[in-house]
Amino acid sequence: MENTLNSEPLMSRELETPTFLMAQEQLDSVAHKLNLDPGVHERLRYPKKALIVSVPIKLDNGETRTFMGYRVQHDMALGPSKGGIRYYPDIDLGEVSAMAMWMTWKCSLMNLPFGGAKGGIRCNPEIMSQRELEKITRRYTTEILSIIGPEKDIPAPDMYTNEQTMAWIMDTYSNYFGYAIPGVVTGKPVGLGGSLGRVEATGRGVTFTTLKALEKVKLNTNNPSVAVQGFGNVGAVTARYLYQAGCKIIAISDIHGGIYNPKGINIEDLFKYVKEHKTVTGFPETENISNQEILELECDILAPCAVGNVLTEKNADKIKCKILAEGANGPTTPAADKIIYEKNIFIIPSILANAGGVTVSYFEWVQDIQRLFWSEDEVVNKLQVLITKAFDDVYNLSIAKNVDTRTAAMMLGVGRVAEAKRLRGLYP
Predict the structure, then answer these.
(1) Which residue is catalytic, options 48, 82, 118, 212?
(2) Is residue 318 among the annotated active site residues?
(3) Domains of the chain (ranges plus CATH)?
């Protein structure tokens, strides 16, 4: 009989997806640089808890349909877990687990008292009514209710979820306990205990880190060109604030395609156009391009702010930017990393670039617990202080250890969590 104690953990069979294997590879690559204890390293390679639930609802047409839901808590050594919930047709356990792991490193890098979590439902929200979305949210909340809470695990919005989604989760959770518990989620409407500045937080973080990178990468221009993949919450806000900071946005895209104008795009006019037409494509005085082509444009700053795994070994050699600001979670594969490093492109890794969202979520959680709320200027200023310090920590470590910025960010994020696990020990 096979000695199962020495074989690969059974859990890995459920997690062998490209995204999760990529997250593990990133962890493994810094483990030896940190001289991680093998036992701690092994524990960090897998989520602490992974819950898969059935989410049955009655659709508007009267048909009953069951969707798959997930909530993964990667690590809780530093505090309750924190992470978004996304509604997406292709989501799976491996992807959710990878994003939970990245959230752990992100929270640690930002020195937040959280571990990483992530959740989602495999559905297509674009074809669902508001009533169906409310039903699926409330049923999903009921199914994961036992593992979430202000001291356990605090969800937040992600792809195709928003303030309203969080309001439904808070209401469902609060009804179960019989009183209002705003701290169970972040990213809520301000009227329910949400924080001012939360909606723009991730895009602001990308902007702050990009402007810091411009201090390190000397360009022969005061009007650097920017290409942004994605016009969701992250990409749109990033484009707006970089535009306001004096950058020239030459290209931007959404799920339907992209637009390009080497002379620059008026972002404020684009916002008005998208509000009416629901897409960036067709915007006057621009050329339509694909989401793939936007990644290969010659520009000073490339900001992939849509989905993961868009920069691979197949297209990395075609990247022509000077600074890569990763607004999306895990947009660059390890194979692509090697190629991009050789091109001397300055990378702002995703666990740093898009950490603004979880940082302001932390601020919201603190405000909810204290029942004491801050002005938007206070929120933005606190965010700038924390993310600027994290950028400096990453940059200084990369110079001191002669490693790339992604490795430096991972060393800081992983190292702090590993030390916490070492100090706490393994129970029992």
Answers:
(1) 118
(2) no
(3) 4-186 (3.40.50.10860), 201-353 (3.40.50.720)
